[in-house]
Every structure is written in C-alpha cells, then in structure tokens.
User: Fold this.
Amino acid sequence: MPRHTHKVTFEGATMSVVDWSRLTGISADLIAKRLKAGWSVELALTAPLDTRGRKRKPKVKQPKDRLALPLPALVDYQRDMHTAHRRLSQSVRAFIREMEQQMADLRHGLDQLMAAQQADIYRGRVENFEESRPDRMSPSAPDSL
Assistant:
C-alpha cells in the first residue's frame, strides 16, 4: 500500500497528503506526523515549519588582539609564563633522559654481574648428564633410613 494515501479534507477540498504537501510546501511526512500526533487538519496544513520561536543569534567573538589591548600586563604575564613553562619542560625532559641513561647503565652492569655469576656457578659442570652417566658410580642400595 503506497504511503500517504490517506485523504484529507480541508476547506471543502479532499486530497491525499502528498497533494497537500505539494500545495502547501510542507513535507508529506511532516503533515502525516502532525495528523498522527492529533493536530487539527487546519493546523497541520497551515502551521509554519518552525514552531519553536526565534533562534538566538550567536555572540560576536572579539579577536584576541582586541581583548589584549586593555590588558598589556596580562599579555606580558602570559608570555613570561609560557617561557617559564618551556624552560621547565626542557629541564624535566633532560632529567628524564639522564635518569634513563643511569638506569640503562645499571641494567648493563647487573647483566654483566649476573653473567659472571652464572659462569662461576656452572664452571666445571657437565651439561649433558645422560652422556656422563657411565663415569659415575651406580647407586648401591636405596636410601631407606
């Protein structure tokens, strides 16, 4: 069944919602929604599209330079704070780089120490125990005590 085949009578004329839409300039969907919402036929076909009232006009934004003219001290303060922030950021980055280098040196030293300890622990041990079994004595009796 085609959409908007419902016939609407207004001021003695009976037409479909689509025909009323062409005549009034209001979309057929909007007319159908208004009628479904319980609007009178007269109001649905004659009410303006925007019933919310006048829209607010946006505030005119002043350029930043115009705002700064009456407050030169604020501009100087902002510049000084920006410079201080940049210097502080550079100092923090340098400190972090230095700490990362110290940590890398400590990790390297620890790795070397661990490697030396492992070499001392395993010095003289046979790696493959299965191959060296004939060299060892066989167990005489199970330890039951």
